[in-house]
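Obj.: predict assembly geometry.
Materials: sequence records (below).
Method: joint structure prediction, all chains together.
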Amino acid sequence: MLGLDKRDTLLLIIVSVLAILGPFILNPFPSNSALAQFNAGYPDLMQRFVIFGILAIGFNILFGLTGYLSFGHAAFLGVGSYSAVWMFKLLSMNILPAIILAVVVAAVFSVVIGYISLRRSGIYFSILTLAFAQMSYNLAYSVLTPITNGETGLQVYTDDPQYLMGPNSSTVTNLFGLEMRTTHSLDLGGWEFHFNVGYYFCVVMLLLTFYLSVRIFRSPFGLMLKAIKTNQTRLNYTGINTRPYALTAFVISGAYAGLAGGLLAAMDPLAGPERMQWTASGEVVIMTILGGAGTLIGPVLGAGAIKYLENIFSKINENVLQDWFSFLPHDVQEVVVWIFARFTGEGWHLTLGLMFMLVIIFLPGGLVEGSQRIMRLVGIGKAKGKSSGQGEDDEHHPKATPHVAE
Amino acid sequence: MGILEVKNVSKRFGGLQALGDVNLSVNENTVHAIIGPNGAGKSTLLNCFVGKLIPDTGSVMFNGISLLGRKPHEINQLGVSRVFQTPEIFSDLTVFENVMIPCFATRDGAFRMNAINSMTAETSIIEKAEKMLLDVNMQDKRNMHAASLSRGDKRRLEMAMCLSQDPKLLLLDEPTAGMARADTNNTIDLLKEIKATRDITMAIIEHDMHVVFSLAERITVMAQGTPIVEDIPENIKGHPKVQEAYLGTAH
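Observations (raw structure tokens):
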């Protein structure tokens, strides 16, 4: 289907179903139960899951395939957001021109940064991209204030020109009148589910970008990118000019980041320089590695895991913990709460760090490898594990299928 | 006029004269061996052919085209393939993918943004790669990771990759270095077979005299950066200058 083989089609269907049913899957607990705080089915959070999923998918096209580790992807995210907000300020609150400009500007940026950075490889490449991203961040903060509005961040004001704005035009972000913030809530017994227009717009974008990434992984172009990762010397002596290949991958990946940045602005028309900071770049790297670099679905899983930790784990503060452990004797409770508080609430970074370390040491293939091992343990036979196509090996080194069904 | 014409090539690394005024002509459809003791400049010379090094003076012509200043991938696209001392293959990819890549490079050139087709739709490339694996007798290892091959099989695979490009000139840099006798003999047989079935010129750099004398039709002996003798194998064996270069002069 759609030029994909059976395995990839299945994967695409699984991702589609998960994304479309997101509001149900992320809200598994009744809204007034004690576990409700683990629910993540809120429109803004769900949007972020999907948007960072797109960012990680794009990052994976560069890092997972070519092995070039960019430490500056947040720059493209930020550039995308700024471009989108400028479209809101100049034209109207329609998100379509905003997103198109975000992708285009981020792609142009990545051509320039990629062209220069790709003259080096390995750690030098990473440092160059990091330097560019930090430069963008600092420029956005200082010199470029007329464009970026500095520390305050760029936002839409009522006295902005907005040339395409009619008298009846919506004043919130919309797609030809369909407002992104529109949410239908569904009450089912104790459960409450939110269906948000913005979320579903992001899902459409996620599925498009995921599909594109599958096609790239399975194409001769993708094979060349994998060859770059394994042995550039051989590739050069095989008559391949590796630089344009790597640059194309870099630009595609930058455009993905621009799309993610544009979507962030489309959901919430703000853009600040902190979006370009190196921590944001590092986050994408961690997402991709945590989920499984070089696998198709890994980056999406990684992005979900980190955004969940960031937003849900960080909400569990000492008061919540005290409530949980109130059945314990007071002194014991204090100790237990103190220990747990290191890992939750503001301490969620510690949990993330530990998780990252465990994954790197025990599951070099990331969460994808983890789920694969669990499947094997549970006894879903080897044959089935293979046909589900999530094998780290299968993903990373897609076997060329014999030409039977042309 | 040979397929590869090297004229007055010299190369200096700091104080070391690695190559001094090298003249060499490799004739079409021959196996030409370049031998010489360590430090004779054999590898430096080879690196001047493939675009890794640029000679300080002189010219290197391939089929009437100058190779100087061209990048490795451009030289390959002209029809020059290279086998390395330690096999350079794509270890993370399967054997079959390893062979497909050079097929793509030959068909599509140095760069083509071919992300529309799926690999499975590339029937002509798949057929060519299948045939190549059959030629080197590796079709049973098709889906293995290249990294898990034995040393001899890696060499075989690298040859298959080079040959799938139908090169006019194949450069081999000590193709049997570090190999066991059996593997060495297999490689010799493979090279003989290649020579017998194709129109191909080979330039071999080799230490192993057994390999050299089983394959070469012409031999150039180098010492201290310059060729000292060039002749057919029969005349090389007992040549006084060759003995001098390898064993040193008795004072």
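Conclusions so far: Strands of chain B lie at 4-13, 16-26, 31-35, 57-62, 65-66, 80-83, 169-173, 201-205, 218-223, 226-231.
To do: check interface contacts against the pulldown list.
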